[in-house]
Design a protein that fits this description.
This protein is mainly α and 57 residues long. It contains two helices and no strands. α1 packs antiparallel against α2.
Length: 57
């Protein structure tokens, strides 16, 4: 399950979520802010998910 590109994917997802949130703040768009927050949260939770999958076998 773990590939060398996992870390880069997490960084890219976090950056995308952050930029989406900033764009939402600048445009005063609550949907963009929330979507960026969800993307950032999933980027933080992905390594935990990958660890649990590896632990389960």
């Amino acid at each position: 399950m773990k590939t060398p590109n996992d870390r880069n994917v997490v960084r890219l997802a976090f950056l995308l979520g952050f930029l989406l949130s900033v764009a939402g703040l600048l445009k005063a768009n609550l949907l963009w802010i929330l979507l960026g927050g969800v993307i950032m949260a999933s980027a933080f939770l992905y390594p935990l998910y990958a660890f649990l999958v590896r632990l389960a076998g």
